[in-house]
Design a protein that fits this description.
Blueprint lengths: L1 H26 L15 H15 L8 H27 L22 H4 E2 L2 E2 L20 H4 L6 E2 L7 H4 L2 H17 L4 H14 L3 H20 L14 H5 L9 E2 L6 E3 L2 E2 L1
Antiparallel strand pairs: 1-2, 2-3, 4-5, 5-6
Helix pairs in contact: 1-8
Length: 271
């Protein structure tokens, strides 16, 4: 049980680390997201950048393509924009410092380099479609494409309600809820969780037979603990029992076990 919990927590943590690396790589390619960049219309350069992002994603999705990359970044940017809009709305509502909306998205700060791109003259921008040479493929720059059918109209922060199409996008909402759940899991600082993870790490280092013994000992301790019968001397590690001693032809000199108390005694009295 403990090993499964620890494995799940490690999986979430590793997933977050990978996507943060992916976002950092994306940040290094302003030709893909910075409208005012001189390279924004440089298609050969953008294709090269897409290729590097595809190779990165193949670390966890071997079948990844440019379309896979585009879809993932669209999802990230849509979720980020939604959180940013909530922050800006709370800032404009005369709320006190303590009442400013605090984003719950775990990658919100990682995408904060996009803030200026999302806010243009009081509105949340949308990217140009940047059609490919075949005239049909949409670029990841138009992050509205995956949620609003490619609409390029601006959404005013202070005066307009969020787009109904974004609200009704079930996939984006599921992603946001999943990200929120993962965020809460990754931020867990419960001392028991920390202890369990450290035990799980040590348990994995044991050989299979040793894991069997350890599992039984742990279960026995938990059983006695639930009954409230544990005490300071409950656990004796690698101490021979009475049967082992009675089967030996060479008894330990000057010592024996009291059958009634299972405590070690000496000829002169109890230790």
């Amino acid at each position: 049980m403990l090993s499964r919990v620890a494995a799940a927590m490690a999986s979430v943590r590793d997933s977050h680390e990978f996507w943060r690396e992916f976002i950092e790589l994306y940040k290094q390619f302003p030709s893909l997201w910075q409208i005012k960049s001189e390279d924004y219309k440089n298609r050969p350069l953008k294709q090269e950048c897409y290729g590097k992002l595809v190779e990165k994603m193949k670390d966890i999705i071997p079948t990844a393509t440019k379309a896979t990359v585009t879809k993932k970044i669209n999802s990230f940017r849509t979720s980020y924009r939604r959180e940013l809009k909530k922050v800006l709305l709370s800032e404009k509502s005369d709320a006190g410092t303590d009442d400013i909306y605090q984003p719950s998205l775990w990658f919100y700060n990682d995408l904060h380099f996009l803030r200026d791109q999302e806010i243009q003259e009081g509105g949340v921008s949308t990217m140009d479609s940047d059609e490919e040479e075949n005239g049909n493929e949409k670029s990841m720059d138009n992050f509205e494409a995956s949620t609003s059918g490619g609409s390029s109209s601006s959404v005013k922060i202070a005066t307009q309600v969020p787009s109904k199409r974004l609200k009704n996008n079930a996939e984006a909402k599921r992603n946001e809820l999943l990200q929120l759940a993962c965020s809460h899991l990754s931020r867990s600082d419960d001392p028991i969780d920390i202890l369990a993870k450290s035990w799980a790490a040590e348990f994995r280092k044991l050989r299979e037979q040793q894991q069997i013994y350890a599992r039984k000992a742990i279960n026995d301790i938990l059983f006695e603990g639930r009954l409230g019968t544990l005490h300071r001397h409950s656990v004796k590690i690698n101490e021979p029992n009475i049967e082992q001693l009675s089967g030996s032809s060479t008894p330990l000199p000057g010592t024996h076990f009291d059958n009634s108390s299972n405590t070690r005694s000496s000829p002169g009295g109890n230790i």
